[in-house]
Design a protein that fits this description.
This protein has 115 residues and is of the alpha+beta class. It is 39% helix and 29% strand.
């Protein structure tokens, strides 16, 4: 099953700069052959479920091996089985709407408070 995952891995006990740890995790994702996109507060990753989660585990192993005694990781993930959709597809859909490709919803018409 394909998954799109938002990953924010934070090493604890290594000082205030964690960029070398983030870079090490990015290398793990690259070596795993996964599509990924770094952003200011984490990385988006897409691929097969087992491959993505194995890479997250490997990120933990590598960052611990760098001397991090603790790691706090936030993960958000989603799966979709009705059609293929990539991270790029999701971004393009919103960008098209920003360029005027869709009419904004009227206030109160979207079922307030429901998702």
């Amino acid at each position: 099953m394909k998954v799109i995952l938002g990953l924010c891995l934070v090493p604890i006990g290594v000082g205030t700069s964690v960029s070398k740890h983030v870079a090490a995790c990015e290398r793990v994702l690259e070596e795993a052959g996964l599509e990924h996109s770094l952003h200011a507060y984490g990385t988006n990753v897409e691929g097969e479920w087992d491959d993505v989660l194995a890479a997250v585990k490997r990120c933990h192993e590598v960052v611990h091996a760098m001397g991090a005694p603790r790691i706090h990781t936030n993960i958000k993930l989603g799966t979709r089985v009705d059609r293929d959709q990539s991270m790029g597809d999701k971004v393009r859909s919103v960008e098209e709407k920003l360029r005027g490709g869709a009419e904004p919803a009227r206030p109160g018409s979207a079922g307030r408070g429901r998702r």
